[in-house]
Structure formats: C-alpha cells, structure tokens
Automatic annotation (TrEMBL), chains A, B, C:
GO terms for cellular component: plasma membrane. It comes from Phaeocystidibacter luteus. It comes from the Bacteria. Residues 6-78, 92-165 form the Glycine transporter domain. The chain crosses the membrane at residues 6-23, 64-84. It is found in: Cell membrane. InterPro entries: Gly_transporter (IPR005115). Keywords: Cell membrane, Membrane, Transmembrane, Transmembrane helix. Pfam families: Gly_transporter. This is Trimeric intracellular cation channel family protein. Belongs to the UPF0126 family.
Length: 203, 203, 203
C-alpha cells in the first residue's frame, strides 16, 4: 500500500465525519447525515477525476474508499455527543481533510500530464469542493467564501509541493511536508486571526 | 423497446413535471420552470452516466428522452392549475420518479461491472440527485436532508434488486418488484409518519 | 488563432469579472472572489465538455483560458471601486459572456455530432451554468429562475445559429450575428421590461 493510498483513505474518513456532522443542526435524519458525509468525502475527488478523465473513479474502483466513508459516518453517528461539542474537533477534521486532498490532487494532476497552474487548481478543487457541496446542501455560505484562510492555505501547500518536486525532494516526504504546511497555515491563521482583505477593502 | 427503456422515459417524464412545478412559488418565468424541469429530469441520470463514464449520455444519444422532458414540462404548464392544487400529485410524481430511477441506476452500474456497494449508491444517486439539484436551485432544504423516508426507501429497493438478482429473478420482473417496493415504503412511511431518528437523538 | 478561440477567451474574461464581483457584498475575501470568478468562468464550459466527453477540458489543455480567468479576476479586484458602482457594467459583462458562450456551445455540440435539439441545450447550458453556480454559491436565486429574459435569449440565439447554419451562412459571420442577437434581445427586454409570463399566470 502506497503512502498516497493510505493518505487518501484517511482524508476520506475525516471528510466523511465533517460532512455527517455539518447537517446536525438542520432538521435531518440519520440517512441525510450519511448522505452528506458521503458527498463531502467523495465530492472533491470525484470532480477531480471527472475533470482529469480518470476512470474508474477512485471510490468505484476500490471498495476501501467506500469503507472509509462508512467508517467516518459511523464515527460521527456513534460519537456524535462527544464530537459535536468540540467545535475544534470538526475544524480539525476538515483541516486534515483539505491538507491531504490538496497534495493528492496536485500529484494526480501532474501524473495526468497537467501543467503546473492546472495542478495547483486541481489540488485546491479536490480539497475544497467536497466542503462547498456540504455547505451548499446545508444552506451555509461556503467556507471558501468566508473571510478566513482556507483555500489560500491549500494554494500555498500546492505550490510548495510543486517547488519541492522541482528540487527532487522525495515524493512521500514532499506529501507530508506540504500537507503539514497547509494544516499549519490554516491553524495559525485561525489562532492569530489572520485573514485576507475583502474585495474592495482599499480605496 | 425494452422495459428498462420505457421505464426510463416514464421516470424522466415524472421528474420533469415535479421539477417544473417545484419553482412555481418562486418569482419565476415559464422558461425558468422548463429549465428546472429539465435539470431535475436529467440531473440524476447525467451524474450517473458521468460517474460510470457511459457516453453518449442517455439524453444526448436518444432524442426521445428529451421529448419526455418536453412532455413533462408541457404537462406542468398546461395542467398547472389542476396539478399544483394537489400536493399529493407532486409527491406521487416524485415518488414514481425515484422508484424507477433507483432500479435503473442499480442495473446500469452492474452492467458497467461496478461492485454491489457501488451499484446501490449509483441507484440512490440516479434517483435523488435530480431532486437535490431542483431543491438547491429553488433554495429549499434538499428533501434528502429532511426527516422523511426518502433516500432510505431507495436504498431498500436497491438492495432488494441486488438480492432478487442473486436468486436469478427475471430482470423485468425484478425491476417492477423493486420499484414498487420503493414506492410502497415511501408512501406508507409518509402515511403512517414513520421516519428515521435524527443524528444525535439518543444520549 | 480562430475566431471561436478568441471569442472563448473574451467570454471567459467577462464571466470571470462577473463572478468575482458577484460575491462582493457577502462577507468574503479576495481569494473567495477569485474562486467564484474562476467557477463562474469555467463552470459552463466544463459542464459542456464533460457532457460531450470532450477531453482535455478547454482550460486544462490550454493555459490561455486560465490566463483569461486571472485577467478577469484581476480586473475585478483592481477596478473594483469603479466597476461595482456601475450595476449596468456587471449586467453588460454577463450579457457578453452568455452571448458568446451560447453560440460556442452550439457549435461545439454540432462538431461532436449532437442532434439539433441537444445542440441548443448545450448552448444554453454553456452560457447559463456558470451563472447558476455563481448564484448558488452566493445564495442568490439563480438569474435563470427570475422573471427576466435570460436563458430564453440564449435559446433564440442558439436557434438562429442553427438556422443560419442550414443556409450555409459562413461560420464566423454566423457566430457574430447570433451572439449579437442574444445580446440585443436581452438588453432590449430589460430596457423595455419585456418578460415571459410566470408559470400559472393564466387561468
């Protein structure tokens, strides 16, 4: 089992938890929560694979991806009482998810021969589109539009991956460094309330 | 003409009606209603075919699918006054739509060699994604997230199809049994107010 | 460089501006605006290409499409103060975008051997889906559902393209005539407050 594969399963698991919990305050049922967890977990990767024309899609060719989703949804259901109290936990799961999916998306795009700009975008897409779907379904302004370092952290990590790759840093090491960079940027930005200026904030 | 084909046309027709009527209370025009009818009718199948990499998409390769959509939208427009009064009618059209699309989705996924778990998901997807698109466009909480037996009914029918298939029940019979099962489960659940517990409803 | 190609770049540029500005009043940051600009600009074309199974997608195979998006987003950011004041400007950018994308979508669908009905739909899709995504993300009722000549203008232009094509009008001339027709219909409809009746407006 390659590192990429294991990371994809872990990222999927985290995203499924975050998706299942997202609709907890909406009037919803267990199945609705599972469905949102599923869409959140596979949304970004599915879009990435459709855009790159990579078939079969990861979750179709490999049942373990689905099992990761089921595990995530189950975790959300069983440990609901504990997990939901800790808003920080939810934040953490989402952060782990986007960090892993960004670097995996970049890597996959490069593998399919995409140019650097496209690889960066595919990384961001894989990471954030699951959350965009989750937020759209639960009628929340997508986190990507909120004044918070989010997709920008993904972009930094994607570019870091590309640069380290040019310097022939070993693939697995690069995956871990760049994913950690994304998580750190996001966590530090939230901790120290750093954010990007709003459009039209200067005159 | 195969049974599957006829059922797909009928399901498309029902979904188009339900989609066109969905936006009736929003400030919209005839074209907006037609467009929503169209997206609702072809949304689930398009997503299914994109995910399975089945080209050309059903509605591109076969004009009769488009004619079904047109017929559904026209029905909605012409009989609007009668149809909209009967909330039950709308509910019925939607129920017919999801019942047919679930079993057709399962069948198509199996035909493309998908494993059982994926086939169940593809069945649910084909059935509910059109409605998710419809509800998202008209700014309603997607029915799939509401506390109502909906996607769960689809799941029951999808699993029923797989089981009967293992026991070599004839295909066309299986299509009809499993689709009827979905419709019955949904209708009975609504009639007797059965629903799944919400996430975190136990302590 | 073909006319089609140049028009696609220009349409992309206009859509990126309109997308980036759309979220200006939501609490959002620069990156959110860029992302919405990006999705708006490439959304319709991406969907068109996925549906037609045309790979690589335009913006993946050709970096200039991405540069058009970047240029549009930059324009929105730098000239924000001026541009946002002029609601008419935003309307104009959107109108230019849909006019160009409609005829390009029709043309591409015909090139892929789609029947006429499908070509019309693909034209409308390419034109309006970027805006639908933009409006859904910023929690606005999609313009296509509002009582305003919008997708109907696209339909008129798409049909005009098909008819002129049957009469062997030269391709580039046809592109320009039909795109201008769309823009004129929309502008005149808004100017003289012409709109389609709402569903169920007659008894």
């Amino acid at each position: 089992m390659s590192t990429q594969y294991v990371l994809e399963l872990i990222g999927t698991y985290f995203f499924a938890i975050s998706g299942a919990l997202a609709v907890a305050d909406v009037e919803n049922d267990l199945f609705g929560a599972s469905f949102t967890g599923f869409l959140t977990a596979i949304g970004g990767g599915t879009l990435r694979d459709l855009i790159l024309d990579s078939h079969p899609l990861v979750w179709i060719g490999d049942p373990y991806v689905l099992y990761s989703v089921f595990a995530g949804v189950l975790t959300a259901i069983i440990f609901f009482k504990w997990v939901i109290k800790l808003k920080k936990t939810l934040f953490l799961f989402d952060t782990m998810g986007i960090s892993l999916f960004t670097v995996l998306g970049v890597e996959k795009a490069l593998y399919f021969g995409a140019p650097d700009e496209v690889a960066v975008i595919m990384g961001i897409f894989s990471a954030v589109m699951g959350g965009v779907i989750r937020d759209t379904l639960s009628n929340v302004t997508p986190v990507i539009l909120r004044k918070e370092i989010y997709a920008s952290a993904c972009m930094i990590g994607a570019i870091s991956y590309l640069i380290l790759n040019k310097f022939h840093v070993e693939r697995e090491l690069n995956l871990i460094i760049s994913a950690s960079l994304i998580a750190s940027v996001r966590v530090l930005a939230v901790r120290y309330k750093v954010y990007l200026p709003a459009l039209g904030s200067w005159r």
